[in-house]
TrEMBL record:
Biological source species: Lysinibacillus xylanilyticus
Name of the protein in question: DUF4064 domain-containing protein
Keywords per UniProt: Membrane, Transmembrane, Transmembrane helix
Segments traversing the membrane: 12-33, 45-67
Length: 70
């Protein structure tokens, strides 16, 4: 089995678009988790990190989807 045949599925554009959409969903989950955690604990570093990381994931993958469609 050749190495190129294994990775030929992952080189398609629809795969990366689906991966970006799933990553945006994960980013939304991180933001929701951070907001719930911050509501329960007033000053939580974990909650702030989750919110910031979730926002960064959403922003970067949205830019990737826009760049792929242009």
């Amino acid at each position: 089995m050749q190495l190129a045949s294994i990775f030929s599925i992952t080189s398609s554009a629809p795969f990366f678009t689906i991966l970006s959409i799933v990553s945006i969903g994960i980013g939304l989950c991180l933001i929701i988790f951070g907001l719930v955690k911050q509501k329960n604990n007033k000053k939580s570093t974990l909650a702030t990190c989750c919110i910031v990381f979730g926002l960064l994931v959403i922003i970067t993958h949205t830019i990737q989807i826009i760049a792929r469609t242009i």
